[in-house]
């Protein structure tokens, strides 16, 4: 009979973080937001009672804060390694949205203008499914990890983890999300320290010694399907299939996530493309460096007395939830496990905040403001946003609880996620990139794609394992075939229908989307001639080309050139290559730390802080008549530079 291992931390520590730290964090964030909101109102006229501020942060978020938000939004328990390719491609979509629909608040607003009510309802469903399953997947993984670390009841953890997030998201809106995203990225300091600490601790010593320790493991514990059973080769078919699932799913998650679109709408014209490109490529190194060094470090430390399970090896049950905390305990005792618990908490709250504001925007703008009250006031829209935040939290926690009760784990939710979220990917992209996609094609193609995906998923599971259960449907191949079907089937359907009867949509129709004006909206209104000036349009078109090139280069560099060739090479990594691999990962991690923690202060942040301080000191008066905000000054500077 296997021995039951005790969690490295106590229940008191677990509740202290989940409840105590959650409440404290909410109070601190609320205090910061009250100060920031008042300061921004005094300095730049940004009133959080205005829908434009609450929902899209007045479309003035700079490059650094956009990059920080991207990093934070993807640093969560079910983080996927190939997300940067999609995020860089999304930079292209973001600048296209600014070029064609500069006043949009949500993706679904754009869908309604182009394809009308039926398509709008279909996309509301697709977007909500994406946010619900993405949020639930994160919460299932986070609550399981917290329970494994501390022994806290898993259901209690499921309901308590989002609690503090609801409080500050309820009051702060999207501005709160950007602010908390920035604060959350400071966990990267812990990640950098942790990766270096593993390498230099006495039981390992240096990169060369880590390589030697891992090289020996192929004899005592070979990896199935890897070349010579080595951990230093990349020939596992299971890993290749998983990579295909993740790449495909990433496109669906990002492109169908209204939260990503909201942050794109909120970013300044000059910040959208560089913000997403910097954020996406900086995020990549977190799973890359942390997975490589901590994963291999755990295997090496498992052979030493420093590891909590020594002299026994980790069982499958233990490895399912305690690899990271046990490695942290080996590196820094209970303090290390506590640091991992803090990382999990911060990652969870970051994603929860983004998902809550995304769902609340759908409820307020696209449900209430479209079908219940077609002339809503700021107060009414924000009230329904509040309803969306609270309702979403309760529903997601209940849904995650149902999955726990059904013995559904994080692996199942990650693998099946693409089948649900991918069908709308191509039709959504064509909405902004191809005026010929017809309304009928946009409506039919994602529905058929999802139905086909589910049919292939269940059919493959039954054919391969003679049953349709949680276990069989969570296997790699059924999920991969179902995911690919959901992703690609809508493409030929929408092309065939649209080429048969193209729509020939007029892009200028998007300009019928207006900004929400109210007594709380201070500053100048949208000026079409000024916005679409020759310099600005030229800049956006050039940024669009750059984004497309970056997206293609990221895919080629991070998938086709590396590491895919290593799969077919069938060799064991040399010590020199391994050393270079780890060194590049560490350097890249430091660059990501600078981008996430310091770029927001350098880029625009310092300018705004200085302007706010001058307002507070009474040395400068705020001009409500329409003077440019610091972010607008940056845009104009770019335009002048380009023109010259």
Automatic annotation (TrEMBL):
GO molecular function (one): urea transmembrane transporter activity
Gene Ontology CC: one annotated term: plasma membrane
Compartment(s): Membrane
Keyword vocabulary terms for this entry: Membrane, Transmembrane, Transmembrane helix
Pfam families: SSF
Membrane spanning residue stretches: 12-36, 117-140, 152-171, 183-200, 240-261, 281-301, 313-332, 338-369, 381-400, 412-433, 440-459, 479-500, 547-565, 577-599
InterPro entries, per the entry: DUR, Na/Glc_symporter_sf, Na/solute_symporter
Location (main, coarse): membrane
Coiled-coil annotated spans: none
Bilayer topology: Multi-pass membrane protein
Family: Belongs to the sodium:solute symporter (SSF) (TC 2.A.21) family.
Protein known as: SSS family solute:Na+ symporter
Organism of origin: Mytilinidion resinicola
